[in-house]
Amino acid sequence: MSARTPSTTTAALRVDALPAGMRATRATKALLALVAAQPDMQWSAADVQARLQKMGVDVNRVTTYRLLDRLAAAGKLVKSVDSERLTRYSVPSRAEALHVRYECTDCHQVQALDESADNAQMAHAMAQYLQTLQGQGLAPSQSELRLQGLCADCKSGHR
């Protein structure tokens, strides 16, 4: 996996980059700091709520979901559903509309695939697919490719 530079990751997660109409409450600031500090993490709402409470920010479940959903709707986070139907949120891996994730079917860890040149063919194929959809009058704003299988740790334990 490629490490992201803090400047590219946190730029979209600053308080001054919030979507129009979203207030910079204590909970919002804490959530932005939390996800910016661990940009490769896949966060469930329960994870976020528990982490915020550990940080001393008392926020209820509904507020947590609203904040995450608003940030996802604004493109600041990527919202996806894993194989166990658990909604997870993550920092977009790049400015493009393609998000490639790999989920382990054993431990359910979700990883963003690295953005190396090795993925250029996949990105090109997906761009062609999105162009085809646009040619049909559709306007996709985001796409996610989720691959499933065993991660390296689980695979080595299954031999």
General description of the model:
Helices cover 40% and strands 17% of the residues. It is globular and about 45 Å long. The protein has a three-stranded antiparallel β-sheet. The longest helix has 16 residues, at 120-135. With 159 residues, the chain is α+β, with helices and mostly antiparallel strands. The chain has one domain: Winged helix-like DNA-binding domain superfamily/Winged helix DNA-binding domain (Arc Repressor Mutant, subunit A, Orthogonal Bundle), CATH 1.10.10.10. It has six helices and six strands. Mean pLDDT is 77; it is low at 1-10. Strand 2 (78-81) and strand 3 (87-90) form a beta hairpin. 18% of the residues are buried. Helix 3 crosses helix 4 (61-73).
Name the features.
6 strands, disordered N terminus, globular, alpha+beta, 159 residues
Short description:
The chain is of the alpha+beta class and 159 residues long. 40% of the residues lie in helices and 17% in strands. It has helices spanning 6-11, 26-37, 45-54, 61-73, 120-135, 152-157; strands at 43-44, 78-81, 87-90, 98-104, 110-112, 143-149.
